């Protein structure tokens, strides 16, 4: 292979452009995440070559346990255009069992039936490797770069909400992807939210432009006293250049096998299913509840349970959340309360401890973006997902047959 090296893309020289400097005192990007410690993050820098193959060109995201970077794949043949990948560099503090579970899940996705219609709508691993830095190990996962999460994509539309006709197309992709995860891979995602459903890049030249612009006109950077640099993320590629909307389900670091009933806390608070709140044990159908509740984010541009949204009211209130579920669905079935390990936190001698939510909160009043038959059919559709009893919720394959998905509103 060494004899063919001259046929591959060459690394770019280290950038010489001087980036504007940010205030050293104010935290930015990953410094704002809970329990941040600089020693746990790998100090990647623009121009660095990782694993002898991937040259870092721009930072494109971050989280509490990772940073994400756009990189050139230097194994690409020279007569082909630059190939870009996304590198998720995990912190050294992620428990070895957690990163192994994520890697196992991603490898399972690669081995499962590629002919399934939902396979293209799930993000797949391209490569993985480990970096050792100051006696700490960092797992790096390599993926296809994506454009943006749904919460950014929806802002491309009037009113920060994806229109019903566009949503129906995207939802069919999401359901195909979930069917692939549940029926083929036997995986429960456990953390569906607009952050973890991403839109694909519609024009690969966008990546080349982002990389070269960072090289020549770098975004402001923060130079830290320990010698590392904190970069700003280039994660907004502007309005789509042409038709897009192809999605992929991403982020499997919290996924679990679906071959048994699980207990414990999963899901973002506002999307949490009743069986998770009460700790009755959950399975695939927790993803279905999660998806049903999340549809308000992308159709309405706001949360279904907005009055308990921690971003809006500053603190999550479980009792208030459960009260809103009761207002929407009526009292919970007795067998669910009897199974719940946490039922006593919500009920005392059969009496609900939380507030009583008025009848004005219901499916009908929570929707403003759609009207008439489109609204009526949508409500019937989500009622197949938002149900007390997990076993009564429709599967992704069943939901794909729902008439609302093919209904054309006038």
Task: Describe the protein.
The chain is of the alpha+beta class and 410 residues long. 27% of the residues lie in helices and 17% in strands. The protein has helices at 96-111, 150-153, 164-184, 205-216, 274-277, 285-299, 310-313, 318-329, 334-339, 372-383, 396-399, and strands at residues 49-50, 54-63, 66-73, 84-90, 125-133, 136-143, 146-149, 187-188, 197-200, 221-223, 229-231, 247-249, 256-257, 347-348, 351-352. A six-stranded antiparallel beta sheet has the order 1-2-3-4-6-5. It has a three-stranded antiparallel beta sheet with strand order 7-9-12. Strand 2 and strand 3 (66-73) form a beta hairpin. The longest helix is centred in the middle third of the chain and has 21 residues, at 164-184. It is globular and about 70 Å long. 35% of the residues are buried. The mean pLDDT is 92.
Instruction: Categorize the overall geometry.
Output: globular
Taking the alpha carbons of the first and last residues, their distance comes to 60 Å
**Order of helix and strand elements from N to C terminus:** EEEEHEEEHHEEHEEEEHHHHHEEHH
Oligomeric description of these chains: single chain
The neighbouring-strand order within the major sheet is 1-2-3-4-6-5
| Count of helical stretches | 11
Which secondary-structure class do the elements indicate? alpha+beta
Low-confidence stretches: none
Major β-sheet, in short?
6 strands, antiparallel
**What is the number of strand segments?**
15
Compute the average pLDDT.
Answer: 92
Helix content: 25-40%
Radius of gyration using CA atoms only: 23 Å
Strand residues, percent: 15-25%
């Amino acid at each position: 292979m060494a004899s063919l090296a001259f046929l591959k893309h060459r690394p770019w020289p280290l950038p010489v452009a001087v980036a504007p400097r940010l205030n050293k005192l104010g935290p930015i990007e990953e410094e704002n995440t809970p329990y941040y410690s600089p020693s746990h993050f790998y100090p990647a820098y623009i121009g660095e070559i990782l694993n002898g193959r991937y040259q870092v060109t721009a930072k494109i995201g971050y989280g509490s346990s990772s940073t994400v970077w756009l990189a050139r794949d230097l194994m690409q043949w020279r007569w082909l255009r630059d190939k870009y990948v996304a590198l998720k560099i995990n912190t050294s503090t992620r428990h070895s069992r957690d990163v192994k579970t994520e890697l196992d899940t991603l490898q399972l996705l690669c081995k499962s039936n590629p002919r399934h219609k939902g396979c293209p709508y799930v993000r797949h691993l391209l490569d993985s490797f480990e970096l050792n830095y100051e006696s700490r190990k960092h797992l790096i996962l390599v993926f296809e770069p994506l454009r943006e999460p749904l919460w950014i994509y929806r802002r491309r539309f009037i009113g920060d909400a994806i229109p019903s006709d566009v949503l129906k197309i995207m939802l069919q992709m999401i359901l195909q992807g979930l069917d692939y995860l549940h029926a083929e891979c036997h995986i429960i995602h456990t953390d569906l939210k607009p952050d973890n459903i991403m839109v694909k890049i519609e024009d690969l030249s966008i990546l080349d432009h982002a990389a070269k612009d960072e090289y020549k006109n770098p975004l402001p950077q923060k130079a830290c006293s320990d010698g590392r640099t904190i970069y700003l993320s280039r994660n907004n590629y502007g309005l789509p250049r042409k038709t897009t909307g192809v999605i992929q389900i991403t982020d499997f670091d919290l996924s679990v096998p679906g071959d048994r009933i699980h207990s414990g806390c999963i899901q973002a608070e506002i999307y949490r299913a009743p069986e998770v709140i009460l700790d009755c044990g959950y399975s695939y159908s927790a993803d279905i509840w999660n998806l049903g509740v999340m549809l308000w984010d992308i159709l309405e541009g706001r949360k279904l349970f907005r009055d308990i949204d921690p971003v809006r009211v500053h603190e999550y209130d479980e009792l208030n959340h459960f009260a809103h579920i009761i207002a929407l669905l009526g009292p919970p079935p007795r067998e669910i309360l009897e199974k719940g390990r946490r039922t006593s936190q919500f009920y005392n001698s059969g009496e609900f401890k939380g507030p009583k939510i008025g009848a004005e909160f219901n499916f009908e009043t929570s929707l403003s973006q759609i009207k008439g038959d489109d609204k009526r059919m949508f409500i019937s559709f989500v009622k197949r997902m938002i149900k007390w009893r997990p076993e009564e919720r429709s599967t992704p394959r069943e939901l794909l047959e729902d008439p609302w998905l093919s209904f054309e509103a006038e």
